From TrEMBL:
Organism field: Nonlabens arenilitoris
Name the record gives this protein: Orotate phosphoribosyltransferase
GO MF terms held by the record: glycosyltransferase activity
Keywords assigned by UniProt, alphabetized: Glycosyltransferase, Transferase
Claim: Glycosyltransferase is one of the keywords in the record: yes
Lineage top rank: taxon: Bacteria
Database matches in Gene3D superfamilies: 3.30.530.20
Entry keyword Glycosyltransferase: yes
Length: 128
């Protein structure tokens, strides 16, 4: 299952946005207010959304100033969450991409909440 957020503009340069996203504690600023959030070391964090199981994500890959990819640390919900970063005239633009392998029933159940979550994260990036 592939889901994409809308592309958002930020005031941060690609370097600033990349550095922000490679620090896992900063993701708390992007999460909805009612989200449980805990850091686990320098490269992992746990979050919990209403109606969804708690998920632990870890920094999986980072390509300086263009991409940051987080991956689930659980085999039960294997997925990645990537942020593609591009330079624009007055800062940068970013798009979040969720990619996971789920059975049809699971995909149907989580598609709506994940899409909503991606849009909330994108809105958080836009406010930076």
């Amino acid at each position: 299952m592939n889901l994409e957020s809308r592309t958002v503009q930020t005031q941060k340069t690609p370097q600033e946005l990349f550095e922000f996203l490679t620090q896992v504690e900063n993701y708390k600023q992007l999460m909805p207010d009612d989200t449980k959030f805990e850091t686990h070391g320098d490269d992992k964090f746990l979050f919990g959304l209403k109606g969804m199981p708690e998920i632990k994500l870890g920094l999986q890959e980072s390509i300086p100033f263009t991409n940051v990819t987080l991956g689930s640390t659980s085999d039960k919900l294997a997925f990645t969450l990537s942020c593609n970063i591009e330079q624009v005239a007055n800062g940068s633009q970013a798009q979040l991409i969720f990619n996971g392998e789920f059975n049809a029933m699971m995909a149907m159940m989580i598609k709506g909440p994940i899409k909503k979550f991606l849009e909330q994260l994108a809105s958080g990036l836009e406010k930076l």
